[in-house]
Amino acid sequence: MKSEWFKNCWMVAAHAGEIGDSIVARQICGQKLVLHRTAESGVVALEDKCPHRLVPLSLGRKVGDQVMCAYHGMRFGPDGVCTDIPGQKQIPAAACVPTFACHERYNLVWIWMGDQALADPALIPDLHWADSPDWTVTTGYLHFECDYRLCTDNLMDLSHESYIHKRTIGNVDDESIAEFPVKVTVEQDRLVRAHREMPNIVSPPMFSMILGEETRIHRWQSAIYMPPGIHMTNVGFHRVDRPRESAHMHMMLHLLTPETDGSTHYFWVFCRNYHRDDEELTQSVVRANVVTLQEDADILKIQQGVLDANPDAVVPKVGIGLDVAPVQARRLLHRLAAAEEADRTAIAPPVAMVADGPLSPTGGSLAA
Ligand code: FES
Ligand SMILES: [Fe+2]
Predict the structure, then answer these.
(1) What is the pLDDT of residues 34-49, one digit of tens each?
(2) Which domains are present in the chain?
């Protein structure tokens, strides 16, 4: 099944810590790449294909800032230009490899897969929580065997938490998230927000673990999406007998980068403002996130299999009320992808992903 991408934007290629002394093979938007860190140019990305006999350069090794092909030893610099051919002095002009602009920010490596002349670091989305001293940050990665758009459908309708994630962030035996109304807004023709207030609910397991007790809480949750693959789930919660200003808050960044039409790199960054130095809690949060995201990965892999077997299927086959935000998200993605299809130099600049919180317009309606 063909996916829908647009490429004149920055996408996450790696967590910064992944790219060290060794070369890393990674496929993004169907393009096979070799990533490595250089002294001269920071992280660079080259097409993973030697121009001599098309052997993957990722089979080779680094020599200083160069990548040396595993087969006949040609070397390529950070700009993709061949610097050495064993046994000859003359280097043909065609002996070079396409490169893709990379930039490090927020402890992430960003890559621009579209028109390289348009790659401006000022267009990197603002995810400042990911390296702010005001938040405690944990990170991870999962490989999803599905079209990244299925992840977007999943993230924009969080009512599934009640059913899929009852070990961590859902509690279907007490209440269903779907019972609480969701407010969906499309902002600046660039992002979709689905905000839900859940007053006076039983704390789901992960929240009980964080609070140190099972209790009744007020909880709010916003799913914020900026196409093609930047998601933030903004969560706040506090005991019902405490004021909203005391809320624990976290931002879960879900950074989706298409690998192929049917597979996705899923980078996550969890930023919290509570129990900031509690290392034990940090480890528990990591475990809970991995369990939660693996539950999504498992069901989306199954869904992808069914879609592959039914290539003409359109989902949702039957639309229900919960589909409003996912449908708006798909529509916005489609509009932006179509704009780039019509004009290969079109760019959709990112906008601020304003988090909801006690003082924000969308986050202020719960009684303390
Ligand atoms: S295939 Fe790379 S040098 Fe020959
Ligand atoms: Fe989920």
Answers:
(1) 999 999 899 999 999 9
(2) 10-118 (2.102.10.10), 128-342 (3.90.380.10)
Instruction: Name the residue with the closest Cα to ligand 1, atom 3.
Output: 72
Q: Quick: pLDDT tens for 310-356.
A: 999 989 999 999 999 999 999 999 999 999 999 999 999 999 998 87
Evaluate if pTM is beyond 0.70.
yes
Q: Is the CB of 50 under 6 A from ligand 1?
A: yes
Say if ligand 1 is within 6 A of residue 53 CB: yes
Number of helices followed by number of strands (H, E) in the chain:
5, 18
Establish whether residue 281 lines the binding site of ligand 1, counting it when its CB lies within 6 angstroms of any ligand atom: no
CA–centroid distance, 49 to ligand 1, in Å, is 9
Could you identify the atom of ligand 1 that is nearest to the CA of residue 74? Answer: 3
Per the CB < 8 A criterion, the answer to whether 234 and 209 are in contact is no
